[in-house]
Design brief:
This protein has 440 residues and is an alpha/beta fold. It has 16 helices and eleven strands.
């Protein structure tokens, strides 16, 4: 899939430093090395921003932290390697019971994650990464040569029934928040209701509607990733400020409930918001991902049998003792790692993985459908995200390279990497000032 206005022999517009002149760059006349170098220049000049990176607070200690090249998909060395400037670290809370005890546990989890992000930026590595609260903060930190952390809240469940926590979360650095995750919250139905057509609120609860007004008041962007379609439509009708979908793709390209359908997309366009296209394999191309996974499991099972090792089902693993499960994982991991090249070669020749090109197909669709000013980029790293070619932050350049190949200009690439999202943040914060001043 290519965007409708991109030609095979694409000409890109390169603006001069003064912004007064422009020259046409015909990438069809470039060698592969020249194209890569050209794309590297764009990647270096634009601010690259990923709106969704989950965290494990065990990686935010003095002993183990993001200054090290950990196995996590995002950390400072990998951000430097891939040229990723801004990572939105996520205060994620899984959905639990709608009880005072459940709310208390959820708040404790959120509190731990807020503290971890502040610990990284204020105590562990303030010389390497800073916390941004505004678009001006982002540009200032990047100009200083630092990486940038921002905070998003995935699932407002930790609010409990206390609306004052909206401002508390704002004061602690949250700049977007979704009202649900997988499972209905006290504020909103979840997209997961599509599995059984069982809904709790038929969209937003009354408290959820109050929370949206409070988010508008303080400048927290409303995030549409994870709530149900009905909840999202109601949220866009109610919000006085533009909204975002922090990590969702196009349902017309891949029909899963976590992707946004055209009706939601057109309303998001009218609202002035932005959808941050997500590089999550099963959201990008479910059939291709399933075929790749099935073939991987088939090859791995054959290799395991050659090593007198039997792959166990999840049910069988649940029945194991902790010691047996640990021994099983150790052997399983050793076999998989020792045969990684063979697995990749045998699987990819038959069932290739979901890759950056498949991801860019969603970007093309969204740009054609609602306009480039409403499209952004996200990974969902360390939360299940990543595709072949953008499997962690160190490979971020490959996204820019693919966009250059498809004929996007430097200005357009800059808009999608950060310009559109920061524009929405600016507008939300301006509207918040007006609401607080009694002007709206």
């Amino acid at each position: 899939m290519k965007r409708l206005f991109s030609l095979a022999a694409a000409s890109l517009i390169l603006w001069s430093c003064g912004g007064q002149q422009k020259e046409t760059v015909d990438i069809s006349q470039m060698t592969e090395d020249e194209l890569i170098e050209y794309a590297k220049g764009i990647h270096e000049r634009v601010i690259t921003l990923d709106t969704h990176d989950d965290i494990n607070t065990s990686n935010f200690t003095e002993e183990t932290n993001y200054t090290q090249r950990l196995s996590s998909q995002v950390n400072l060395p990998k951000m430097v390697e891939g040229g990723l400037d801004v990572a939105w670290f996520i205060v994620y809370t899984g959905q639990g019971e709608l009880t005072e005890e459940g709310y208390a546990r959820a708040y404790e989890n959120a509190d731990d994650k807020f503290k971890a992000i502040h610990r990284l930026t204020e105590e562990i590595a303030p010389d390497k990464i800073g916390l941004a609260l505004t678009s001006d903060d982002v540009r200032k930190l990047v100009a200083e040569g630092k990486k940038v952390a921002m905070i998003g809240v995935e699932n407002a469940y930790p609010l409990g029934t206390d609306i004052s926590r909206v401002k508390e979360f704002y004061d602690r650095g949250a700049r977007y928040m979704s009202l649900a995750h997988n499972g209905h919250s006290q504020l909103s139905d979840s997209n997961t209701g599509e599995r059984d057509s069982v809904w709790l609120h038929n969209g937003l609860s009354d408290f959820g509607k109050e929370v949206i007004a409070e988010m508008n008041k303080y400048g927290i962007m409303v995030d549409l990733s994870h709530p149900s379609k009905a909840a999202n439509m109601q949220a866009m009708q109610l919000s006085k400020a533009p909204v975002i979908a922090s990590h969702s793709s196009a349902r017309a390209v891949n029909d899963v409930s976590r992707n946004m359908d055209d009706e939601q997309l057109m309303m998001l366009k009218k609202n002035g918001g932005v959808i941050q296209t997500v590089a999550f394999k099963s959201y990008v191309n479910s059939d291709k991902n399933s075929a790749n996974s099935a073939k991987s499991n088939e090859i791995l099972a054959a290799i395991a049998a050659e090593n007198d090792f039997e792959i166990k089902s999840r049910g069988e693993m649940r029945d194991m003792s902790p010691e047996e499960r640990e021994a099983y994982y150790e052997k399983y991991t050793a076999i998989r790692e020792a045969n990684a090249d063979r697995i990749e070669e045998e699987v990819n020749s038959v069932a290739p993985p979901v890759d950056v090109s498949d991801f860019a197909d969603h970007i093309d669709y969204l740009v054609n459908k609602i306009g480039i000013e409403h499209v952004g980029i996200s990974s969902d790293f360390d939360g299940g995200g990543g595709v072949e070619g953008w499997s962690d932050a160190s490979e971020t350049f490959n996204v820019t390279l693919e966009l250059v190949r498809r004929g996007y200009t430097e200005e357009e690439i800059g808009m999608m990497w950060s310009g559109n999202l920061l524009r929405v943040l600016d507008e939300c914060q301006e509207i918040a000032k007006k609401i607080q001043a009694g002007e709206m």
